[in-house]
């Protein structure tokens, strides 16, 4: 089972799945650029990012169900 990564960052500009501290959008695609988290549309994410996961890992988990 894939797990949220909390102790490292993905490579810059690699789109990943983010776990956010947001009741409306708790999971969202995004990436890091110049030390900032950004949503998939390049908007800066202001709230905390609780973890991240490679999209392939999340998709593989869903395919195995």
Describe the protein:
This protein has 65 residues and is of the alpha+beta class. It has a domain of 43 residues. Helices cover 14% and strands 34% of the residues. It has one helix and four strands, in the order E-E-E-E-H. It has a four-stranded antiparallel beta sheet. Strand 2 and strand 3 form a beta hairpin. The radius of gyration is 11 Å and the shape is globular. The model has no long low-confidence stretch (mean pLDDT 92).
How do the strands and helices of this protein lay out in sequence?
Layout (H helix, E strand, L loop, with lengths): L15 E5 L6 E7 L2 E4 L9 E6 H9 L2
Antiparallel strand pairs: 1-2, 1-4, 2-3
Distance between the termini: 11 Å
Low-confidence stretches: none
Beta-strand percentage range: 25-35%
Q: What pattern of helices and strands is seen along the backbone?
A: EEEEH
Give the class from helix and strand content and strand pairing: alpha+beta
Order of strands, main sheet, comes to 3-2-1-4
Compute the CA-based radius of gyration. Answer: 11 Å
Q: Major beta sheet, specifics? A: 4 strands, antiparallel
What is the strand tally? 4
Shape: globular
**How many helices?**
1
In round numbers, the mean pLDDT is 92
